[in-house]
C-alpha cells in the first residue's frame, strides 16, 4: 500500500494567479498587428510604386517616411505583444498606447491602402478592448 504525502511550498504562501484568455488574445493580436505593420513598412521602403495615391489626394508623408514609421512601430508592437503574453503589466499599458498610434497612423494611411488600413484599425480597436477588459492582476494563460 502506498501513501501520498504533500509538502507545503517552500515559499510559505500560495497565491493563486488569475489568468485571462483576453490577455493571451491581446498578445496574439499585438503580434499580428505588429507583423502587419512590419510588412507594410518593408513594402513602402522596398517598392515605392506599390502604394498609389492620386494627385488630388493627400498623404501626410512620403512612402519612405511611412515605411520607416511602420517598420519601427511594427517591431515595437511585436516586442510589446511578447510582453503581454509573458504577463507584464507595462506591456498592457504600452500596448494600448501603441494600438492608438497604429490606428491613428492607419487613418492617415487610409488613402494609400484602404482595405489593409480598415482591417488594421479594427484589429487595433479589438486590441485596446482586450487589453482593458481583463480583471486587474490577471496574467496571460
UniProtKB/TrEMBL annotation:
<feature type="transmembrane region" description="Helical">
    <location>
        <begin position="115"/>
        <end position="132"/>
    </location>
</feature>
<feature type="transmembrane region" description="Helical">
    <location>
        <begin position="93"/>
        <end position="109"/>
    </location>
</feature>
<keyword id="KW-1133">Transmembrane helix</keyword>
<keyword id="KW-0472">Membrane</keyword>
<keyword id="KW-0812">Transmembrane</keyword>
<feature type="transmembrane region" description="Helical">
    <location>
        <begin position="66"/>
        <end position="86"/>
    </location>
</feature>
<dbReference type="InterPro" id="IPR055568">
    <property type="entry name" value="DUF7144"/>
</dbReference>
<protein>
    <recommendedName>
        <fullName>DUF7144 domain-containing protein</fullName>
    </recommendedName>
</protein>
<dbReference type="Pfam" id="PF23636">
    <property type="entry name" value="DUF7144"/>
</dbReference>
<feature type="transmembrane region" description="Helical">
    <location>
        <begin position="21"/>
        <end position="46"/>
    </location>
</feature>
<feature type="domain" description="DUF7144">
    <location>
        <begin position="22"/>
        <end position="134"/>
    </location>
</feature>
Amino acid at each position: 500500500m502506498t501513501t501520498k504525502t504533500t509538502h507545503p511550498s517552500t515559499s510559505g504562501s500560495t497565491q493563486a494567479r488569475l489568468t485571462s484568455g483576453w490577455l493571451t488574445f491581446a498578445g496574439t493580436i499585438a503580434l499580428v498587428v505588429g507583423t502587419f505593420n512590419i510588412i507594410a513598412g518593408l513594402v513602402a521602403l522596398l517598392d515605392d510604386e506599390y502604394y498609389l495615391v492620386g494627385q488630388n489626394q493627400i498623404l501626410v508623408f512620403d512612402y519612405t517616411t511611412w515605411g520607416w514609421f511602420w517598420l519601427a512601430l511594427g517591431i515595437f508592437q511585436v516586442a510589446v505583444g511578447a510582453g503581454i503574453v509573458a504577463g507584464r503589466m507595462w506591456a498592457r499599458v504600452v500596448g494600448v498606447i501603441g494600438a492608438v498610434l497604429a490606428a491613428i497612423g492607419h487613418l492617415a494611411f487610409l488613402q494609400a491602402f484602404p482595405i489593409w488600413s480598415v482591417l488594421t484599425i479594427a484589429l487595433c480597436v479589438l486590441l485596446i478592448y482586450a487589453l482593458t477588459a481583463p480583471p486587474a492582476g490577471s496574467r496571460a494563460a
